[in-house]
C-alpha cells in the first residue's frame, strides 16, 4: 500500500481506538472489535500496530497533543499571569460539559493498565509531570512559589476525577474558586490582579 494510504488507515484506526477506549474502556475493547469498527483486517491492524499496548501508547500520544493544545489555547486567552493560571480551570469547565466527557483518559488508562503495563504507567506519569511543569512555568511568570504549581495541579486532577464521577461540570468551578484562593494567598491579593 502507498504511504498515504498507510497514514490514512493508521489515523482511522487511532481515531476509532481513541473513541472506543475512552467510551468503553481499554480492556473491554478487543482487537476484533477494533478491526470491525475501523473496517480493517486483523492482519492489517497488526501490521500497523504490532500489539494492543503499542496502539494504546499511540492513542495516549495523540491525547497528550490534544491536551497540550487545549491548555495552551486557554493560557493564551489570559491577559495577566493570574488570568492565565485560572484559564486552565475555565478550559476544564468547557471540557466537562462535553457530551462524551468520561474523565481523564490518562487517569482512566492508569487505572486499567498502570499496575500491569509499566510503559503505559510511565507515559501517564510523564504526561502528568509535563502538565505540572507547565503550571510551574505559569506560576513562575506570576512570581509565585514553586509549591503553588503542585497545589494547582492537584486541583485540576481532582476536578477531572470528580467531574467524571459526578457527571457534572461543577467541580471545575469549585477548583477554579480554590485556585483563586491559593493564587491570591501566594501572590498577595492586590499584586496578583
From TrEMBL:
Domain of life: Bacteria
UniProt GO MF annotations: DNA binding
Keyword DNA-binding appears in the UniProt entry: yes
Keywords: DNA-binding, Transcription, Transcription regulation
Domain HTH tetR-type positions: 7-67
Family matches, as PROSITE patterns: HTH_TETR_2
InterPro entries the UniProt entry points to: Homeodomain-like_sf, HTH_TetR, Tet_transcr_reg_TetR-rel_C_sf, TetR_C
Signal peptide: none
One family name in Pfam for this protein: TetR_C_13
Record-annotated membrane-spanning stretches: none
Protein's UniProt keywords contain DNA damage: no
DNA-binding region extent: 30-49
Protein name: Transcriptional regulator, TetR family
Biological source species: Micromonospora krabiensis
